[in-house]
Structures are given as C-alpha cells and as structure tokens.
Amino acid sequence: MRPKALTIAAGLALAAVLSAWWWGSAPWLGSKPLISEVDAGPIGEPSEPGEFAPRDERTANASASAPSSGDSLRDTDVDGALRLDARGQPLPDRELRRLFDYFLARSGEQSPEAIRSALLGYLQSQPPAPELRPDALATVLAWFDAYVALERDCVSIAQRETEPAAAMARVRSLRRERLGQVLADNWYAQEERDYDRADARRKLWADRSLDPATRERRLAELDADLDPQQRELQAQSAQLDVAMQQSREFERNRTDAGTRFAERESLYGREAAQRLAELDQRKARWNDRVRSYAAQRQRVLADVDLSDAQRQQRLSGLMQGFDPNERRRVDALTRNGMLPGQ
After folding, report:
1. Which of 211, 232, 209 minimizes the C-alpha distance to 220?
2. What are phi and psi of 269, to 5 degrees?
3. What is the pTM of this model?
4. What count of other Cβ atoms lies within 10 Å of the Cβ of residue 66?
5. C-alpha to C-alpha distances, 148 to 66, 143, 154, 177, 194, nearest whole angstrom
6. I want to staple 185 with a disulfide (CB 3.0 to 4.6 A). Which of 72, 79, 189, 210 is the partner?
7. Closest alpha carbon to 168 in 206, 197, 204
8. What residue spans of the chain are helical by DSSP H?
9. Can you tell me the distance from the alpha carbon of 111 to that of 325, in angstroms, rounded to the nearest whole number?
10. What's the rounded Cα separation, in Å, for the pair 238 and 250?
11. Is the alpha carbon torsion for 53, 58, 59, 65 positive or negative?
C-alpha cells in the first residue's frame, strides 16, 4: 500500500530541518550527542523506586548564571531539577537527566571541565542546596560523569554500527551496565518504549507481503493505547524511518540521484521525493564542511610555529563557522576520532 503522500510529506518537511543534523546517527538516542573526556565506569544502583518519598518538589527554574554573549544558554531558564527523597538522597528521575542535558548544551562551546563546574556551582546555589549533603552531591556528580561518558560512547556506537537494531541493543545493554537497572530505566525506559513501537511500525510498513487491510489492522493493534494525535505522529515517524533507511541503502550502493527520485516518488509521492532529494544535498554540503574543517584543523595542529594559546585560539575560530548544534556534533566526531583523516 502506498503511504498517503500528504502525510509523509508533512513528516519529511520536519525531516528537512532535523535529519540533516542527525543523518548517519540514530534518532532513538533521544538526547544530544554529549561528549566528555571522563572515563566513568559502572556506578552503584540507587535505591529501589518504592523507597523514594519526594520531600522537596520545587523545580530549578532560575536563570543560568552569568552566561557570555556567545553562550547558547544565554537568556534561558534552567531546565530540569534536582529533587531529594525523605532521607536527603537525590532522586534518579527524568528531571535530573533533563538538568544534566541543559548544562551539556554547552558541549563544543566550553570544556567538559567548565561544564561540570557550572553544574556544580548551580547545585550548590539553588534549591534544594541547603539540604544537599556532601554525600548526596557526590552521588549526583558521579551520575553526571557516568551519564556523560555513556552518552559519548552511545554516540560512537550509533555512528559506527550500520544496523540500527544492533546498535540499539548495544546501547540498551551499555546503559544498564554503566548506570544500573534502576537508573537506566528511570532515564531511558520511555524513549526505549517509543523506539520499540516505532521499530514495529517500520517493519509493518516495510513488509511487502502484507495486504493493506492486514497492515492497517496490525498498525491499529500496535497503537491501541494511543490517542488519535499520538497515532498520527507515530505513523509519520514510521514512514519517515522507512524513507531514511532506504536513503542509507542508497548511500551504501551509491545510487544516482535520478534512480533515488524515481523510487521515492513511487512510494511516497513527488513532494516527499523532492524533500528527500533536498535532504541528500544538505547532507552532501554538511560532509563538505566537515572535510574542510578537518583539513584546516590538521594544518593548525601541524603548525609548529604556533604557541599553545595561538593554536587554541585558531581551533576555536574554526568552530565559529558552525552553529551550536553543529559544534556539538563536530566536537563529538573529533573526540571519537571520526573526522576525515583522523
């Protein structure tokens, strides 16, 4: 059954903005490609969820302290919160992960050490700081270090593994190995369920042996617990994932632009095929920019006449050609040794 052209086109309109950034990595990671030089190993299990009795429900919504004019967090409110249970121990909930993500938005702009210091300063100055004991603060920082190292390694898995299902299996295992079962479930269970649902939808769309009625029935069964708006979003996501998987196959096979357009048009309609062609062009431009950056970076690193300060200044200058999101990805590629020529 051919997907509705208008439906897939709506999803691909959003993809034209977002997927050029994420192309080649796994959209199911859910969070930004975080990077760190901290090599955090496994951390202890937090207490069981049933033991938590939140004492302080106040959220941390103060403005970020003294951001510079080039700071991507300038004029923003802190997102997420640290909450304590009745024993004064930190709650390992999704709000805490959001707080980590907020400060890690500066990745590529500031060093990992500076980002960690900013988080520490925030934790020591905002509620529930007066009740935050040293051992509880140490626990939060240990979780942060483990989270950053985990996200760095998950990005590497997503960029190196060609099979999405295999990559997701490795990521899930690594999350529980590094964080423990309770913390990994608290932070990632919902997006893992979303991934499983989207993957099941993708397989149904891709299964050419199914007649239209059977496919529609199975899709309805899969989404029975969703409201109509969520079902529509899931349908668009699954169709988009099929289109992107097809595009990755085109890349591997070096399929020419004309063949790509014809195959996409037959499946999704002319408008969607045009948007995907534009996405191919944006990816090609991105790759050209990364290759140019990598070559200039190598020349700076090889220039023995530069002092350390001059070298760092020039490397920082090279990054100014990228916006904050792009800088995070370039930084992740650099730290994982995945720039062209590395």
Report:
1. 232
2. 100, 165
3. 0.58
4. 9
5. 23, 9, 10, 14, 22
6. 189
7. 197
8. 5-22, 94-104, 112-125, 134-160, 164-179, 181-206, 212-222, 228-253, 257-268, 270-302, 308-319, 324-335
9. 15
10. 19
11. negative
16, 81, 301 from 236: Cα distances, Å: 14, 32, 45
pLDDT (tens digit per residue) in 260-283: 999 888 877 888 888 888 888 998
Which residue reads 């529980």 in tokens? Answer: 176
For 114-140, how does the pLDDT look when each residue is reduced to its tens digit (9 = 90+)?
999 999 999 999 877 778 899 999 999
Under 8 Å between Cβ of 102 and 63: no
**At a CB cut-off of 8 Å and minimum separation 6, what does 341 contact?**
294, 295, 298
Least confident of 221-230, 249-258, 296-305: 221-230
Alpha-carbon distance 209 to 1, whole Å?
10
- Ordered by start, the domain boundaries in the chain are 1-30+161-302
Describe the crossing of helices 212-222 and 181-206 by its angle, rounded to 10 degrees: 160
Tokens for 78? 């802190």
Residue 301 has a CB neighbour count (10 Å cut-off) of: 12
| Cβ proximity of 128 and 56 under 8 Å | yes
For the residues 49-76, what does the mean pLDDT come to? Answer: 48
User: Do residues 182 and 45 lie in contact, with contact meaning Cβ atoms separated by under 8 Å?
Assistant: yes
Among 79, 128, 125, 76, CA closest to 99: 79
Cβ pair 234, 198 in contact under 8 A: yes
Q: Of 85, 81, 83, whose CA–CA distance to 103 is shortest?
A: 81
- Alpha-carbon distance values, 278 to 19, 27, 33, 271, 275 (Å): 11, 19, 24, 11, 5
Neighbours of 46 (CB within 10 A): 22
Q: How many whole angstroms separate alpha carbon 27 and alpha carbon 208?
A: 24
